[in-house]
Amino acid sequence: MAQIILWGILIISWLSLFFLKKDSIRRFMPVAIFAALLVTIIEEIGYVYNWWTILGKIFPWEHFITYPLTYGPFLVGTIWIFHFTYDKSFWVYILTNAIIDAFHAFVMLNLFTYFGIYRLNNINNFGLFILIFCLSFVIYPYQIWQDKIMKKS
């Protein structure tokens, strides 16, 4: 069951990009890839410190990274969040991230645990929320920098 859910999450995430303008995808893909890279590093650290255990896998090399979640809804979700919030206000962006990160840490995590996808060990839901939410403050300046580079070229 976990594999079906993970494949569904991965595929649906990427299919959602068909509803987004190509310009938005092109503009926000670098920050999404950067964010996914940061999450990959955090997941490697989490593996070393036993913050969580990955139970459901769709790839044989998935020992410390939940590839379908990191490179599915997290990466694609970053594009969507920036598409809807980036040109509005930093605070709209932060509030949106806080809501989505809280939903992940306090609601989705329970579902992922129930369906045997992953479980927390040496970190609690709030710690996971803070960890994910802090990324918002790192990737926003990265996008500002990316915009400056794109305007020059």
Automatic annotation (TrEMBL):
This is Uncharacterized protein. The chain crosses the membrane at residues 6-21, 28-52, 64-83, 90-117, 123-142. Keywords: Membrane, Transmembrane, Transmembrane helix. The lineage of its organism: Bacteria, Bacillati, Bacillota, Bacilli, Bacillales. It comes from the Bacteria. It comes from Heyndrickxia sporothermodurans.
